[in-house]
Amino acid sequence: MDLDISNKSLPIFAALDSQVRIKIIRLLSEKKMNVSQISKAIRLSSPITIMHLNKLEEAHIIKTQKKGNQRICSLQIDTINISFPQQLYIPYENWNIELPIGQFTNFDVQPSCGLACQKGFIGKVDNPSYFMDPKRYEAGMLWFAKGYVEYQVPNYLKPDQELEMIELSMELSSEFPFSNNRWPSDITISLDGKEIGTWTSPGDFSDIRGRYTPDWVYNDMNQYGMLKSLRVSKHGSFIDGQHFADTTINELDTSKNSWTLRIGVKDDAKHAGGCTIFGNQFGNHDQGIKGRFYFSEN
């Protein structure tokens, strides 16, 4: 489950604000249990236990199923990620871009792979040829088990301007046929042929539906990713504020009209678990690949 600091996340925070409910979560992490078993384990009456279970189910932390006269409870998630707002004062001018995830200019992918838009799949799934389908620009989600996709990031610098820092953000996860919440993948991101860093995605998530994922997407398919923030400055390259590489902004060729942004999984990656990229009207963040470019006047 992917959370941010907003009112939408309050029900989950409220559900976790209880020693009793934390104990229930620990019990269900070991095995499925019915209401009577949980009530006995936490030493509370069935009505009080049901009240706590309802709170956890409303927050999509657990799920319940009817089996005869019994209510069987199980955990619905195994990870909660919280994204805090990042604020950084930069005394420079800047320009912003947002690339649709289907606007890649080069690719080399292997199945399982595919593209999806608001209406359904684009072309045939697991056929890399359809990554060149003209409708790829409509894609709100793309995925591949091996390989990479590349985008051209425009350079709007004028001759008398100096690039100071670049910030990028994108929603990513691993790729497993349908989904697997525990499926690590080392996703490497590079700019202008220079590695920014490698982030290990913990899985390909379908524990709950993505906030923006269209209704036609099956519940056991990729639902959402994690929003990753990348920064390239004169001090190195960072992912979510942590230093990942020594690549600096000075290594970019600012005479080019554009820079190549590559997102992929290396052949020799320790965790070669594929990559899913979420875009507009998919996943938990209604955005494509966002970029902010800071510059100073000479």
TrEMBL record:
It comes from the Bacteria. The keyword DNA damage does not apply. PROSITE patterns: HTH_ARSR_2. Residues 1-95 form the HTH arsR-type domain. GO terms for molecular function: DNA binding; DNA-binding transcription factor activity. Signal peptide: none annotated. Keywords: DNA-binding, Transcription, Transcription regulation. Gene3D superfamilies: Winged helix-like DNA-binding domain superfamily/Winged helix DNA-binding domain (1.10.10.10). It holds the Pfam family HTH_5. This is HTH-type transcriptional regulator, ArsR family protein. It comes from Lentilactobacillus parakefiri. The lineage of its organism: Bacteria, Bacillati, Bacillota, Bacilli, Lactobacillales.
